[in-house]
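Dear colleagues,

I hope this message finds you well. In preparation for our joint manuscript, I am sending the Ribosome-binding ATPase YchF (Algisphaera agarilytica) sequence together with its predicted structure, so that both groups work from identical material. I would be grateful if you could confirm receipt.
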Amino acid sequence: MEAGIVGLPNVGKSTLFNALTSAGIPSENFPFCTIEPNVGVVPVPDGRLDTITQYIPPQKVIPAALRLVDIAGIVKGASEGEGLGNKFLSHIRSVDAILHVVRCFEDDDITHVDGSVDPIRDIEVIDTELMLSDLATVDSALQKAARNAKSGDKDAKARLALLQKCQPVLAEGKPIRNLIASGSLDPEELKALKSFGFITAKQVLYVANVDEDDLHGEGELVSRVRARAEEEGGAVVPVCAKLESELAELDDADRDEMLESVGLEEPALAALARAAYKLLGYQSYFTAGEKEVRAWTIPIGATAPQAAGVIHTDFEAKFIRAEVYTLDDLVQHKEEKAIRDAGKLRAEGKAYVVQDGDICHFLTGA
Ligand SMILES: Nc1ncnc2c1ncn2[C@@H]1O[C@H](COP(=O)(O)OP(=O)(O)OP(=O)(O)O)[C@@H](O)[C@H]1O
Ligand SMILES: [Mg+2]
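The corresponding structure tokens are as follows:
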């Protein structure tokens, strides 16, 4: 899973990225501090991995990973080449989801490019640029599709028809995700849509970058962002990027102490990852053995062969069956052999829909 971080300049994107990835890239109080995009991989915290490793101690534990792309701040006019934004938008065309960092902290020492803190205005500036950028994409794709469709090719005609549905939505100032949410596209069209890399087709998770004294996001500014997210079926996670970056520098014991002293149960990454999973309709299953215990990310509803295909593309086609048990089975019986002896190790076929938290072995053919 890959998420792209967007937002106005100087709102805390790189601070957040650093806190999550411990990458130590520059995050200073001046707009456009980031120029080249930064890519980092963060492990997704999952307490179930700890439970599994209590019973099946492995040589290594591999949590699910979230790839983050931190790009330059986007300003008004970015889609036409203002600021640094335009060129960098291309770096987020392939991500699965957008993390939109919105400034919700008041601090006179930190420059706001528009002079005041106003999260909804800021969101609209970014949304407009993303829509204009998609509109440019749709316009050039339309020309190409129209040329190709002249040959009478069926696929080319379908692409043209799809683009003709997208164009008016964007021209009206609406994101493509509204078109998706309206349910008027069929599965074929939804699949084809991906190939265009529209930024506004992606789900958005708002990261409300809050003051140190509003860590739970109960303030007025965050509630405005929350209302906005609800309107579009998105979600908001309050994060104090500054505090998170301080937490990231500490060792485990000091971190727990600091979390307790500020009244937080966990670093924001855990909540962020959970929200991103939920928004994207993702879940995890596990593989567990002496060599490694590992979490894998799959869409809700994935069948056993599709889940196996995440491990290795060949496994999907070569899938024979899966042996599946649950975390509860493991806690109750303490080892796999006992689970098998108790008749709880289920043999599942191609149609099995993998459930969140399943522990699986896949049997595959040559
Ligand atoms: N929650 C917060 N409270 C107070 N200050 C913050 C908070 N989050 C970030 N800052 C400060 O805001 C400044 C800008 O942060 P950062 O460089 O991460 O922004 P950015 O969005 O990456 O900017 P650019 O688009 O220029 O790359 C830094 O000085 C940082 O310490
Ligand atoms: Mg930055």
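For the figure legend, we might mention the following. The mean pLDDT is 88. The longest strand covers residues 97-104.

With kind regards,
E.M.
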